[in-house]
User: Fold these one by one.
Assistant:
Number 1:
Amino acid sequence: MRVCHLSLTDFRSYPSAEIALDPGVTAFVGPNGHGKTNLVEAIGYVATQSSHRVATDAPLVRHGAERAIVRALVVRDERRALIELEINPGRANRARVNRSPVARPREALGLLRTVLFAPEDLALVKGDPSERRRFLDDLLVARAPRFAGVRADYDRVLKQRNTLLRTAAATRQGRRRGARRQEDDAAFASAGAGDVLSTLDVWDSHLVRHGAELLAARMDLVEALRPLTAKAYATLAPASAAADLEYRTGVKLSTDCGRSREILEEALRASLAEARQAELERGVTLVGPHRDDLHLALGELPARGYASHGESWSFALALRLAAYDLLRADGGDPVLILDDVFAELDGHRRTRLAEIVAPAEQVLITAAVPDDVPAELAGARFDVTEGSATRVR
Ligand SMILES: Nc1ncnc2c1ncn2[C@@H]1O[C@H](COP(=O)(O)OP(=O)(O)O)[C@@H](O)[C@H]1O
Ligand SMILES: [Mg+2]
């Protein structure tokens, strides 16, 4: 798969840009701050409808503009798809595929698949669990776009359940204070609390349904990633201890019952029941996929907090390479994007990474200076200066 044309309107620093892309390697080279990452970020956005740099859409729209438009013409097995995304911060985004509007932007997911490597990936190893959950969920969506819906449903239910729990916690505190002053208030408040509990049961069943689906998919995904990550890590850091992954969940799972959806639903339901008292006290949902983590280990030690800078980099790259292998095995080479990564790597890792990515159908690289692009990855080149990209090779 490859992008053969990218067109931007008011995206980041670009009032407009038209960029024709060839198969194979293309490097965007230019001084820092001149707009290289903005270009590849736009391509990543078409694939995932999110940015690898920011959590919200607002910074993607050019300062002073109302909306941004990103268009990508994607070719896969000789078939073309034109994907157009209109980014409207604070309002619903819109998408068109082959010039026809789709009901929801997420229907345009899956037409372009990318694997993006960036300095921000170090957070996969050093950062909070939310970074690793996002890595897993983004990969789930890339492999099967319907997971965008599962994730959105889970997040929505979680938010509503948390609102209810917060109300319940506040009511309880009010009741305790009230009870001290006036016994009658307690009776009034407890009638309200009964409503809360029955509403909570309804939210529990939704949370269990979507949560178990997410949990099952993440656990399967981690099993698929384990050997691929270990292999990629061993290639990048042959002298280091072996890399391993483990999905860690607060949901209590018995070891011998398997991992079917039904079993996970039961387990999540039971864990929620167990946590309910504490949840009512604290006003927040304490178990479920939103609290889980992907544990990364190097030999006996956790990578987080123990791995050296070089090992952390290798682990982050290994996770991305494993994702690339999985997507490729599903069918169709994803577009590889390497944003400013070669400058960060030592000679060995640079060469290994270059060798691994060189055969991909399309590789897009950003670098501050031409020397940061490894010789194995010679190809087309754009100079990016002062917010415009000019093809020079
Ligand atoms: N929403 C925006 N509106 C206008 N300019 C922006 C916006 N977001 C980022 N920029 C500008 O884009 C530039 C950074 O571009 P970037 O692609 O990250 O540079 P690099 O070439 O180092 O990768 C900065 O000068 C920044 O001010
Ligand atoms: Mg950059």
Number 2:
Amino acid sequence: MADSTELRAEVARPTLRPALQVNALGKRVPLPSGELTILKDVGFEIGQGDTVAIVGASGSGKSTLLSLLAGLDSPSDGSVVLDGEALSTLDEDGRARVRGEKVGFVFQSFQLLPSLTALENVMLPLELRGDADVNGPAMQILQKVGLGERLAHYPRQLSGGEQQRVALARAFVTRPSLLFADEPTGNLDTHTGQAIIELLFALNAEAGTTLVLVTHDEHLAGRCGRILRLDSGELVGEGVAA
Ligand SMILES: Nc1ncnc2c1ncn2[C@@H]1O[C@H](COP(=O)(O)OP(=O)(O)OP(=O)(O)O)[C@@H](O)[C@H]1O
Ligand SMILES: [Mg+2]
């Protein structure tokens, strides 16, 4: 019979499943000139509450990788398990559910809805998941990113950096367990960029949000616990930030 003390110890140990498990991930696309390999044999694991920077030259596959990790795109090879959910076993509706429940995403190109105001853009994810109070939290987060005076502006009436902050607010507002952001400080001046970095890491510290950030910003990468480096679609190095 199994030793009961051992059994109890097993039960008591917290089983913290990884936020992300990535195995032999590949992305290939057909082109008239032949097949293009964008990502090849990428594998790593990210723990809950980790902060990870993905770095690499332009065209190395960072945005493609981020889309695969968040279930916005499907891999050609390999698998992604997000908080215990194997994305490849889910259909598009299933992946949308997982994203809605667990994921915030900030696109490199922001992707705000042009017909909605800043406030409406930020309220949208709360409305989609059926929250009763959507106005208050959306206003609060927009104030936090310094846009309390721009609530009724449409995206075309906002500067690039302001649109980026609306996109961040939209990703933050649901307090996701995993936040993916593609160049979150890319278009911001140093002061605003610093404020966004503080906001990201406050979310990590307060809510335990796992952060996966694509960035060229050395200061931002340096704040992360880990750095994953891509070169021509392959993971070439992993380091702990200096
Ligand atoms: N759907 C697609 N069809 C063909 N090629 C693609 C497609 N998506 C991406 N690529 C190519 O794959 C490579 C990686 O693109 P990706 O956008 O992931 O790079 P990145 O590392 O994010 O670059 P950047 O730092 O400039 O944003 C690029 O050379 C790009 O042209
Ligand atoms: Mg990119």
